[in-house]
Design brief:
single chain, mainly alpha, 2 helices, 92% helix
């Protein structure tokens, strides 16, 4: 398996340093995507709360 890994790196002309840099960059992308998801969840929750308040106000007017 290590031989295949070394052959792949050689074919792609990349080093272990390149792979480590990619992994670190990928971690940062994944982390920022989780942050976006978390803020999106809170925005969705807030939207539902506002929508419920509007519906309650409409019901009181009737």
């Amino acid at each position: 398996m290590q031989l295949k890994y070394a052959q792949c790196k050689q074919m792609m002309e990349i080093s272990d340093k390149d792979i480590d840099a990619y992994r670190e960059q990928r971690k940062q992308i994944d982390k920022s995507m989780m942050d976006v998801d978390a803020s999106g969840d809170s925005l969705e929750k807030r939207f539902i709360e506002i929508q419920s308040a509007i519906e309650a106000a409409k019901a009181k007017q009737k």
